[in-house]
Amino acid sequence: MSIHLDQYFSIVHPEVTFNITSIRKFINSQFVLQAHREMMPRVWRDRPMLQLRGQMIWMPMLDRMLYQASPLLRSLRELEERDMHISDIAPHDVTRDLILLNHQRLAEMELSNQLERKKEELHLLSLRLEEEKRKTENLLYAMLPKHVANELKEGKAVEAGEFQECTILFSDVVTFTNICAMCEPLQIVQMLNSMYLRFDRLTTVHNVYKVETIGDAYMVVGGVPIPVSSHAERVANFALGMIVASREVINPVTGGPIQIRVGLHSGPVLAGVVGEKMPRYCLFGDTVNTASRMESHSLPERIHLSPTVYQALKDKSYLIQKRGEIEVKGKGIMSTYFLERNLGATEQQIMGLTGCQDDRSGLST
């Protein structure tokens, strides 16, 4: 039976003619042979073609060429594609070791890639965590003074502090009860949100601390939590800005601007954090009650001053009108005043709408 080897295989390496004379010239080279697809069994034709790698050995006594070879494989995947097993390779054949080493290298590369992906995921997670932390801190700083919030974050107990001088402001919306009775809840929320957004901006302009809002009532303080000598001027300028800002808020009942009442009082307070589940920075003392009385006894679109606020502002650049003596619930007869305007500042400056800091020279800092 005569079989020609070149009918079944071709030489891939080295590039020589498939005959004994050419092969003998490269006898010391490794030869790689590849099977012809059309000569393979039909069930193997869809698989990758088999390649053999080995040594050509010339046997002069037999006048024959012996090809000692093994399958040329690089990975376990190639082994599986050819329906072979690692046990099909001779134990002494380095191909077995190469396959296992290559498989180990690929596994290490995949592990390295997975670690890189995890590292990137952790980096992105860290960035998102920092962003959420920043949002949480901003929310906390909006609810509490910064130094108080930092102490709470560190797990420290925040002790109440006494402030000998401060100015407290209360405001409310005139006829708010009637507005609530005649409007949808969503309209009330929109009206209050429009008003509070304007007032909140003014707290930054005049550097006063917003204590809380309850319904339509808005409460701020100057000189707390950081004591300043200009607390009365800051709150007075803020109150003037509130009157202007309220004219931009629409009353859903009348279609015109809302009207607010404002009251101010100066005096000592005790301030501290109350509550655990939703802690708040609160003020306590008779000064708070008196400020509230100034607001409730005020008139629409007027800023009602107690005698202590008048004493703090009378020598400053403010136009103040004496209201006279009135009966104040729980306080008896008091001589009170109305704040008209700041003679040293324009409405633009009061509203913080000027283009540069120098234009705010009429405001206290």
TrEMBL record:
Q: Which residues form a coiled coil?
A: 101-135
Gene Ontology cellular component list: guanylate cyclase complex, soluble
Q: Which organism is it from?
A: Takifugu bimaculatus
**Oxidoreductase: is it a keyword of this entry?**
no
Q: Which Gene3D superfamilies match?
A: 6.10.250.780, Haem NO binding associated domain, Nucleotide cyclase
Recite the UniProt keywords alphabetically: cGMP biosynthesis, Coiled coil, Cytoplasm, GTP-binding, Lyase, Nucleotide-binding
Name the Enzyme Commission number(s) assigned to this protein.
Answer: 4.6.1.2
This chain belongs to the protein called: guanylate cyclase
Q: Which GO terms describe its molecular function?
A: GTP binding; guanylate cyclase activity
**Top-rank lineage group of the source organism:** Eukaryota
- Identify the main location: cytoplasm
Q: Give the matching Pfam families.
A: Guanylate_cyc, HNOBA
Which InterPro entries does the record cross-reference, listed alphabetically? Answer: A/G_cyclase (IPR001054), A/G_cyclase_CS (IPR018297), HNOB_dom_associated (IPR011645), HNOB_dom_associated_sf (IPR042463), Nucleotide_cyclase (IPR029787)
